[in-house]
Amino acid sequence: MQHHLLHASGISHTFDYKLFDAIDLDLKAQESIAIVGRSGSGKSTLLHNLSTFLQPTNGNVALFGEDIYGLSETKIEQIRRYKLGMIFQNHYLFRGMRAGLNIELSSLLCGVSIEKSILDKLEISELLDQKTSELSGGQQQRISIARVLAKKPKLIFADEPTGNLDKQSANLVMDVLLENIKENDGALIVVTHDSEIASRCDKVYLLSDKKLTLVP
Ligand SMILES: Nc1ncnc2c1ncn2[C@@H]1O[C@H](COP(=O)(O)OP(=O)(O)OP(=O)(O)O)[C@@H](O)[C@H]1O
Ligand SMILES: [Mg+2]
Known about the structure:
Blueprint: E1 6-14, E2 18-27, E3 32-36, H1 43-50, E4 58-63, E5 66-67, H2 73-82, E6 84-87, H3 99-110, H4 116-121, H5 137-149, E7 155-159, H6 167-183, E8 187-191, H7 195-198, E9 203-208, E10 211-214
Helix pairs in contact: 3-5
Magnesium ion (MG) binds near residues 43, 89 and 159.
């Protein structure tokens, strides 16, 4: 039997107050889901809980069949480096560096090289020699997405990956993310405020009133 790429059960998180409670979520290979919800509802926090970066107050998260918060730092680092693709709400490119070098660094770290077709699809092939700090916000966002895809991640967590983008560019980004999971037999979780982007995923979940519910 094929295990889930992600299996989360009973996830709760509390900062100053309880953000959400008893959330269960499963993700299989080839599956894409979107998480929508009001600003401040806890979407980014939940994504951090699910992706090894923040242990939930309660509950368990298994990635690739392993309970991640019971693993050693070394093991977690390995999973992050080779298997997870994190597209954060604020991307962290090295600003003084050429755009292309940002992507190459990721390839170097993981020992795989980026496919030219991804750069073409994201319409950034011509930008690689420019300094990151000289690119527009949306161009930087696409470079940071290419950097994540360079390592062919199995599980992609994307927090508003299209927040800075026009509709056409946003759809290009969704095209490459969805292609990536097909090609690598992976899965995708996208947090978005854009219902059109959300509807491109297999399932849409709403985070509201401390619960995560499937939108019919
Ligand atoms: N590290 C932290 N320490 C304390 N409170 C935090 C921390 N991170 C987030 N919060 C609080 O948790 C709540 C949810 O934040 P979160 O970033 O998860 O929301 P979100 O749904 O992603 O919102 P947005 O759509 O605006 O990105 C907010 O009230 C925020 O202030
Ligand atoms: Mg957020």
